[in-house]
Every structure is written in structure tokens, then in C-alpha cells.
């Protein structure tokens, strides 16, 4: 992908520079003083004539833009946004370019024979230790699998590219101990200084050309790679090195490691804090990544309203990736448990749902009657007395303790019961209750979360409990004039027999765009995952130095890099397998039973269906030797796309840089894939006469 920050669309000056003067295309004279916006411009394949005249794709794209772009009537001082118009020229992921144009200019483009479609700018979002042993990578006494690290040499020589919001390059998870140099095919670069990048973190780049226009303006300095928590967490999950003594607030002590601890990592920053991820920057990063030599792409971002595949950057870039043998693991989204909320729906992507891990940070609430409820707490203060404390609840407001002045005279020395929600986060509630002198807080989760708790590091003693336990607690408080309770901290507990449970937030199918194929594809660990961060969330002071380097996060953002790392292991063990073969191996061997050997359930204890769980929970040991494999090549998806009703131009833009299709549309829409797929879906309409 070529960045043409210096290319100016000024009268015909650009064309004169790019073309012999006798072939120059005169710019259309029209008034383009309207508002400039970023558009993804999809164009047809260049004719042989175009290829003879223009030696690069970027110069051809620049000439197309110049043919409709006229700045003669603009005053650049009054409109700095008109200075640089061509933002990205894509080589691999789509046949087109990103540019800043007006609505009038788009109208002019639509008259040209090279024009296919103009898509307005769109912002995507991030889908926000123990798990190697849980999924059976270590070969130690594992949860219920054997080990695979020995067979795959822990992913040595594989390169995992991570699209995210930045990375803390100096984190111990990215230490180069035990790492060899990157393979000779690696063509990427590191925008950190040379002392930070090493044989573990071999690449770090920032893609911001599109985002900076709408966020701050053209005069911004170059945006360096940020040291942020989300990208650090996902990268260390996929391929972090071994870090003995890793812990979160003194809990979960152990040796942290990514799924492929000997794989190399390359970070492509496409998201910016509180600003989201711009579509055209995502395309640019994928455009370069597939050229730079990555083996796997880990993408923990998306949009459940991304629309059809012809305008979705993950779908477009993912197709090019699999054409080049690059496996793509993507997050399913965090809009569950509602149906048809799944993101990243293209059939050539691995779409990953989130599930629990069986590790809990147990905090027990013991009522004055002796009844106990097990909850969780990430911060478990040492030597906290297990004595009974008076209980008080938010009775003036909505039960969420969102009023900072609420009951200030009543909370000192008491345990305050609050519902999650309201105007304040749980951390802020705890902070103001701590300042008011409360002994602690019991935080009741929302009903839709069911049995799943996401504990935080509060500044005061806290127990987070599930909704049903909260109902029983409130009933007890109404039954007596002097309710009391104790908080008993039990540390980290492993081995929940109901594990894995599909996370309530994990987006569900069926797919809106892709109704012939099951989505999500598979489930992986995505609840309360311990991995590296730049700075942990929460208000409690870390009790030891490594506690300041690790934190728990939950989301399909955490599940996708687990599968990315496992894909790297499988590819290392089976270097000739295609991305489709690796995906098939994972899906056909996935577990559908939990540790009780009963069907995996959702957060409410009901049997999880395929639209929440996909094919099942990842089993790397079985995936190494699946027996039957459903293999696909990139062209096998073309009839499927035609069956979905895409035009020839749209199919051609999706499958770029493959040769364009012609007359490929099926006479009737067939939404079922015409190829070997491990999980096709067939809808059945009952006979009305029966």
C-alpha cells in the first residue's frame, strides 16, 4: 500500500508530473468548494492501455482522482483539508483508493467508466497464564487435553500480525530471550527506536492517514505507535514470551505465556484511544501486512453493522490474506446475547466467540444467618477481617449507588450493596464509598450476565456477585432489622466443572450477511484473561512489580488472539496446510462438552446453541491431527458470493487481486456455499400442506 501524502490534487499539476504531456488528462472544471470527506473509491481493473502508461497502481489511482479533482477555485489557506486528497492507494486488499473528495466530485466520478462504487468513511471499534494449560498446549497435567507445544516447537519462526491500538514494546512479554531472528521473508519495519524492537517484537507501525483528517486535522505530527493496554493484551495473548511470576493484584500467580510463545510479533496500529479504528487505515495495514510476510493476522476489531463484504475492510483484506496463505482470526463482537449481532461474517475468516476459563478469584459473602454466596474480587486485601459488618443498600435512588452524595452519613463502617449500572462505573462507586468511610461494597451484576462475573481492582474491599445471589441478599436484608455480612477472600480457584461457558456478551449468530455458513465459527477463552498491559485498570495499588504489568480483560477481543496463536502452532506443524485447512481442523475437532462431559452451556445454564458456540470450544491437540479436512481455495468462494447477489464488479472488488469475474452471477440467489465447508447451514421451510 502506497501512502501518497505528498501527492497534491492541484489543477492538472499532478497529471503533468505523472504523464507525458501529450497524454495528460485535463481536470474537469467544476466547483468543489463543498465539504471534503474520506471515501473508499472502488474502481475497475486497469486496462492494458492503463498498465502501459502508468508504471504503478498508485500513479494510475492518482490520475483517476485528478480527472475529477479541481482545486482552482479553492483557497488552500481557507480549506487546509483540500491540500492532500489521495490518502491511500491500495495494491492488494481492494482495487481502489482512499481519498478526500466532495459529494460533487463523487457525482463526477460516477460518470467515469473506471468507477464502480464510492463508500463513505466508517469507524470500527475494538472488541474488548492459565489458558495455555487449559486448552492443552503445555503437555503438563492439563485440563483435559495433551500438549501441542512440543509438536509445534511453540510456533518458532511464525510471524503473527496484530491489528490493534498500540503496544507496550518494553513489556516483559515481548522480551527476546530464547528467540531466534525473524525469517528471511520478513519485509516489515519497526517504528519504535531500534533498542526497543527485537527478535520477539519485529514490527510496529502506525496507520493513521485516514483517521487524522477527521480527528484532529492535517497539521498533526506523525502519530507514533502508542503504548496502550488493549493491543499489549492481545499481542501477548497470541505470542507473548514466558514471564515467571506474572499475576494480577497478587492473584493468579504463574508463568504467563502466549499461545505461540516462540512466534514473532508485528503490531499494526489502526485504532486510537477513544477514537475507534478507521476503515481505510485498517485496509492500509492489511494491504502492507500481507506483503511483509506475516503468517497469521489477529484482528480484534469490527462492527456488527459493517454491511456487505464489498465494503468491509476485514472481509476485503481477509480475502487477499487467504489468497496469499495468511490465516485470519477475528473477533465475533461483544453485542450478545442478542441474536444476529455477530461481526466479521465473511466465510474465509475465522470468527471467534468468547467463553469462560474455569479460573475464579473467589470472594465469599457470608450473611448473618450463615448463608454464603460465592462471588469474585480481583483486589483481595490481605488480613481483611472476616467479621460481620452492618449492611446498607441504596434505597433513595435506583439501587446503583450512582449519587455521590447518597447516604454519606450512613455508609461509614458498613458494607454497601449496589447494583451495577447507573451513571458511575463500579470503580468510581467504590472510590466515593471508600472516601465516605465504607467498610466495603457488594456489587450485584446485571441479570443478562447470568453466572459470569468480570471482577475489577477496586480501591476498597469488594465482592462482586451474580444477579440471582443479589436477589437472595436483598431478600435477607428485608427480613431483618439489622442485616450483616462478612467478606471472605479465598484467592484464585481453578477447575470450575461447568467450564467452558459461552460468555453472555459474546455476539450471536445467525449471520446477517452470510446465512449459508455458521457464524461464529468457534469459541475460545475470552473471560477474565490474564495478559500483559501497559498499565492495569483499577484503583488499588499493585502489590508487586509484575502486578503492574498484567491485568485481566474480557471480550471476543481476547478470544481471537488465542486462536491466532493456536493457528500459528498448527501452521508450524503443518506448513503446507492452507488457511481453510487450518480453520477446518480447528472446527471439526472442537469440543462440545464441558468438564462434566455434558453439553457446553450459556450464562444461564441452558445448553449453548451453535449460534453462540459455533462448532465448539477449541481443542488444539485434536486439531493437530483432525483426520478429515475440508479444504478450500480462494476461488471456491466466488460462486457463493454470486449466490448472495453481488454484482460482477462487487465480486471482482472482493476477490482482488484475482482476475475479475464476468457473467458469474447465479441466475437465482443461492446463499449456500458451493464448496467444502465444515459448517454449512441449510434452512428448511415446512410444507404448508402438512
Automatic annotation (TrEMBL):
Keywords assigned by UniProt, alphabetized: Glycoprotein, Hydrolase, Protease, Serine protease, Signal
What InterPro entries does the record tag this protein with? Answer: PA_domain, Peptidase_S8/S53_dom, Peptidase_S8/S53_dom_sf, Peptidase_S8_Asp-AS, Peptidase_S8_subtilisin-rel, Peptidases_S8_3, S8pro/Inhibitor_I9, S8pro/Inhibitor_I9_sf
Give the start-end ranges of region Disordered. 657-690
Its domain of life reads Eukaryota
| Residues annotated as domain Inhibitor I9 | 51-127
| Residues covered by the Peptidase S8/S53 domain | 155-614
Q: Where is the PA domain?
A: 390-473
Q: What is the official name of this protein in its record?
A: Peptidase S8/S53 domain-containing protein
Amino acid at each position: 500500500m502506497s501512502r501518497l501524502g505528498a501527492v497534491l490534487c492541484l489543477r492538472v499539476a499532478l497529471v503533468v508530473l505523472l504523464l507525458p504531456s501529450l497524454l495528460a488528462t485535463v481536470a474537469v472544471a467544476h466547483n468543489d468548494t463543498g465539504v471534503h470527506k474520506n471515501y473508499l473509491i472502488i474502481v475497475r481493473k486497469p486496462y492494458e492501455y492503463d498498465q502501459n502508461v502508468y508504471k504503478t497502481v498508485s500513479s494510475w489511482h492518482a490520475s483517476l482522482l485528478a480527472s475529477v479533482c479541481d482545486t482552482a477555485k479553492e483557497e488552500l489557506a481557507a480549506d487546509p483539508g483540500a491540500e492532500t486528497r489521495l490518502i491511500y492507494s491500495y495494491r492488494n486488499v481492494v482495487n481502489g483508493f482512499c481519498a478526500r473528495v466532495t459529494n460533487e466530485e463523487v457525482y463526477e466520478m460516477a460518470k467515469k467508466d473506471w468507477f464502480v462504487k464510492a463508500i463513505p468513511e466508517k469507524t470500527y471499534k475494538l472488541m474488548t497464564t492459565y489458558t495455555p494449560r487449559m486448552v492443552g498446549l503445555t503437555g503438563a497435567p492439563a485440563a483435559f487435553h495433551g500438549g501441542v507445544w512440543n509438536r509445534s516447537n511453540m510456533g518458532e519462526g511464525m510471524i503473527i500480525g496484530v491489528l490493534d491500538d498500540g503496544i507496550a514494546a518494553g513489556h516483559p512479554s515481548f522480551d527476546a530471550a530464547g528467540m531466534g531472528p525473524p525469517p528471511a521473508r520478513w519485509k516489515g519495519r519497526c517504528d519504535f527506536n531500534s533498542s526497543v524492537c527485537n527478535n520477539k517484537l519485529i514490527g510496529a507501525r502506525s496507520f493513521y492517514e485516514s483517521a487524522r483528517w477527521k480527528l484532529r486535522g492535517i497539521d498533526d505530527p506523525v502519530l507514533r505507535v502508542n503504548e496502550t493496554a488493549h493491543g499489549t493484551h492481545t499481542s501477548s495473548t497470541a505470542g507473548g514470551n514466558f514471564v515467571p511470576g506474572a499475576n494480577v493484584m497478587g492473584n493468579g500467580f504463574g508463568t504467563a505465556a502466549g499461545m505461540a510463545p516462540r512466534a514473532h510479533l508485528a503490531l499494526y496500529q489502526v485504532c486510537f484511544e477513544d477514537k475507534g479504528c478507521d476503515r481505510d487505515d485498517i485496509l492500509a495495514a492489511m494491504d502492507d501486512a500481507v506483503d511483509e510476510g506475516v503468517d497469521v493476522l489477529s484482528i480484534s476489531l469490527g462492527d456488527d453493522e459493517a454491511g456487505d463484504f464489498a465494503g468491509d475492510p476485514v472481509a476485503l483484506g481477509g480475502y487477499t490474506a487467504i489468497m496469499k496463505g495468511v490465516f485470519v482470526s477475528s473477533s465475533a463482537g461483544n453485542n450478545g446475547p442478542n441474536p444476529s449481532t455477530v461481526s466479521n461474517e465473511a466465510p474465509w475468516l475465522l470468527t471467534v466467540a468468547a467463553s469462560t476459563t474455569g479460573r475464579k478469584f473467589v470472594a465469599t459473602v457470608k450473611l448473618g444467618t450463615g448463608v454464603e454466596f460465592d462471588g469474585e474480587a480481583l483486589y483481595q486485601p490481605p488480613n481483611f477481617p472476616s467479621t460481620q459488618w452492618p449492611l446498607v443498600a441504596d434505597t433513595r435512588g435506583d439501587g446503583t449507588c450512582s449519587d455521590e452524595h447518597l447516604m454519606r452519613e450512613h455508609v461509614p463502617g458498613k458494607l454497601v450493596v449496589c447494583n451495577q449500572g447507573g451513571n458511575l462505573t463500579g470503580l468510581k462507586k467504590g472510590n466515593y464509598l471508600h472516601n465516605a468511610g465504607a467498610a466495603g461494597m457488594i456489587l450485584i451484576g446485571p441479570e443478562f450476565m447470568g453466572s459470569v462475573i468480570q471482577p475489577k481492582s477496586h480501591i476498597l474491599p469488594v465482592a462482586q456477585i451474580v444477579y440471582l445471589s443479589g436477589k437472595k441478599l436483598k431478600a435477607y436484608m428485608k427480613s431483618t432489622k439489622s442485616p450483616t455480612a462478612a467478606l471472605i477472600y479465598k484467592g484464585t480457584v481453578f477447575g470450575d466443572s461447568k467450564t467452558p461457558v459461552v460468555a453472555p456478551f459474546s455476539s450471536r449468530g445467525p449471520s446477517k450477511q452470510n446465512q449459508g455458513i455458521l457464524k461464529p465459527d468457534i469459541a475460545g477463552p475470552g473471560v477474565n484473561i490474564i495478559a500483559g498491559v501497559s498499565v492495569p485498570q483499577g484503583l488499588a495499588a499493585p502489590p508487586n512489580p509484575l502486578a503492574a504489568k498484567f491485568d485481566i480483560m474480557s471480550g471476543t477481543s481476547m478470544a481471537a488472539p488465542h486462536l491466532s496463536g493456536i493457528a500459528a502452532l498448527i501452521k508450524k506443524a503443518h506448513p503446507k496446510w492452507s488457511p481453510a485447512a487450518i480453520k477446518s481442523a480447528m472446527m471439526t475437532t472442537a469440543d462440545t462438552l464441558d468438564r462434566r462431559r455434558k453439553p457446553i452451556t450459556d450464562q444461564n445454564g441452558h445448553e449453548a446453541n451453535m449460534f453462540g458456540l459455533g462448532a465448539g470450544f477449541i481443542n488444539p491437540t485434536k486439531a493437530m491431527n483432525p483426520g478429515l479436512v475440508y479444504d478450500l481455495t480462494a476461488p471456491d468462494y466466488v460462486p457463493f458470493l454470486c449466490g448472495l447477489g453481488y454484482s460482477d464488479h462487487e465480486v471482482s472488488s472482493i476477490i482482488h487481486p484475482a482476475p475479475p469475474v464476468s457473467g458469474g452471477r447465479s441466475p437465482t440467489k443461492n446463499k449456500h456455499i458451493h464448496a467444502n465447508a465444515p459448517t454449512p447451514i441449510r434452512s428448511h421451510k415446512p410444507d404448508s400442506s402438512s
